[in-house]
Each structure stands twice: as structure tokens, then as C-alpha cells.
Design brief:
4-stranded antiparallel beta sheet; 7-stranded mixed beta sheet; globular; mainly beta
């Protein structure tokens, strides 16, 4: 079982940057497809970025390319999401998700964190 714990959210000013963290534990051996989703009030949860912990090119939703960067620190079992040039429309709950698989579009994520709120004003 994989546990995911997000952190790094908060109230931030438009135009600034924020880095979200997701520490994963419970399975130090498997390679994971990990992703960041966000859910804005009244909207569905949307996948914004994903990467395979075994390497390869990360995937980004078109709407966030150039502003979002997903990365990992394998030694710390931590996934990151850096968001630059924050906009009010980036206000959302950000969730980390994972599954024991290589990444592909439409993959089902088995494990989810509780989320971290980012509010941009």
C-alpha cells in the first residue's frame, strides 16, 4: 500500500511561485506513475502533470505547459510540482496520485493523497 502526503500549499500572490511536495511511502521498491491533479470549486478533478519514477519525459496538460514543472527526489521519495506565474485561476486543491505502473494516458491511479490547498489572490 502506498501512502501519499502533500504539503506546500497556502495563500499566495498572483505572479509568484509555489512548490508543492508529495512524500510517498509504503513501497520503496516499485516504480510508480505519479501525477498531480487539481480540483477547483465546482469543477472536476483534472490531471495536470505526470511522471514515471523510473525515468522518462514528464507529461503536462496543454493548459499548464511552461508554468508547471513536475520533478522528483528519489532519495527523499518525494514528488514536486513547481508552479510559476501563479494566476487566480490556479486556485484549487492539489492532489498527488500514484499507481504501480508506467504512465500512459487514461491510467487509473490507485493511491491518492489528501490534497493541499493553493489559493491565489
Amino acid at each position: 500500500h502506498v501512502q501519499l502526503v502533500e504539503s506546500g500549499g497556502g495563500s499566495v500572490q498572483a505572479g509568484s511561485s509555489v512548490t508543492l511536495s508529495c512524500v510517498h511511502s509504503g513501497d520503496n521498491y516499485s516504480r510508480l506513475c505519479m501525477a498531480w491533479f487539481r480540483q477547483s470549486p465546482g469543477k472536476e478533478r483534472e490531471e495536470r502533470a505526470a511522471m514515471y519514477t523510473g525515468g522518462g519525459t514528464p507529461w503536462y496538460a496543454d493548459s499548464v505547459k511552461g508554468r508547471f514543472t513536475i520533478s522528483q527526489d528519489k532519495a527523499k521519495n518525494t514528488l514536486y510540482l513547481q508552479i510559476n506565474s501563479l494566476k487566480p485561476e490556479d486556485t484549487a486543491m492539489y492532489y498527488c496520485a500514484a499507481v504501480r505502473s508506467e504512465c500512459y494516458r487514461g491510467i487509473y491511479y490507485q493511491y491518492w493523497g489528501q490534497g493541499t490547498q493553493v489559493t491565489v489572490s
